[in-house]
Amino acid sequence: MTITKVPARDFTVEIKTAEPSTFTPIGGLNSLSHSPSNNTADTTDFDSGGRAEHLVMERGDSWTIAGRHLEDAATGDRDPGQAAVEALAKSVGLASLGTFQITSPGGNKVTFDASAEVTLAGGGHNDPASWQAVLTVSGEISYA
Q: Residue 24's Cα: distance from chain center in Å?
């Protein structure tokens, strides 16, 4: 076994589109980034010796996926993964959460429920149309 650097392009990002566990790849991606966050409670008191103290009370995560808008120019058919994320991004309430899975080249999986905020196609005169989604995690993340 050799532990080595792996290309980001070899990760797959999928959205669950059917039960029991049908995941559909999200096509056209050229960028994947994770943004952790936390909320802290200040626990500093007179005994802290002039040093700030805190406890992490809550943790959060989001993933930004971005790339190229994929569409059949003749029929208007869309990439199934991008279309599923866009449909999720239009939903509210309990329907606003979908299940996503990110798989590394070695098969490690990160699975989570998230809402989606999609930036639809855009770009300049000579650019391929862009596409982006921010996936805001709700609840626990599973690492397998």
A: 14
What does the alpha-carbon distance between residue 46 and residue 24 come to, in Å, rounded to a whole number? 55
Proportion of the chain above pLDDT 70, given as a percent: 100
Token digits of residue 124: 């300049």
Please name the residues in contact with 107: beta carbons below 8 A apart, sequence gap of 6 or more: none
Alpha helices by DSSP H, listed for 23-138, are 80-89
Q: Full-prediction pTM beyond 0.85?
A: yes
DSSP letters spanning 20-39: TTEEEE--SEEEEEEEEEEE
Beta bridge mates, 135: 63, 116
The torsion angles phi and psi of 117, rounded to 5 degrees, stand at -125, 115
For 23-56, write each residue's pLDDT tens digit. Answer: 999 999 999 999 999 999 999 999 999 999 999 9
The per-residue b/e assignment along 98-124, b for 16 or more CB within 10 angstroms, e otherwise, is bbbbbbeeeeeebbbbbbbebeeeeee
Query: In whole angstroms, what separates CA 81 from the centre of its chain?
Result: 13
pLDDT in tens, 77-86: 999 999 999 9
Give me the phi and psi of 75, to 5 degrees please: -110, -20
Structural domains in the chain, sorted by start: 8-39+56-143 (2.30.110)
